[in-house]
């Protein structure tokens, strides 16, 4: 008799736990990065002129545990290094040499922790995060703030991040026997659309 009572109580506790967990389980969704609609560009300077390269080949996954509160479980992003294009062949070659693309084929970001979510209303959130940014042979835990928009079955991440080449073991490229030098500071600007 006591065993039946204990079994019934365990079933009730299990049912209550399931009722509380079910909304989160239902709302957790995986999204894949849409390469055609997403953009990523890197902006820099040189002793001759400012420059930028645009990523043509991007991929990634995002899992949102709650669409109403903007809670992320995971987020990844990858750029094929030799898909970074400036429109100038010689500059692209210098970029690939600096990035050591013969050894390191991609640049990647992996979310580690969401520090804060600020709800700005109408499906828009400011996310303050920490993630591993890997460029060449260097992986660094990097703080990145970005806007997150949820609408029509897609999630858009939009932001920018300033970094230094030397922080990622990259020697700023030089051209024309060292007469043109590239600045150490870069700004990465992205609009990532996950569907």
Automatic annotation (TrEMBL):
This is YceI-like domain-containing protein. Pfam families: YceI (PF04264). The lineage of its organism: Bacteria, Pseudomonadati, Bacteroidota, Flavobacteriia, Flavobacteriales. It comes from the Bacteria. Residues 33-190 form the Lipid/polyisoprenoid-binding YceI-like domain.
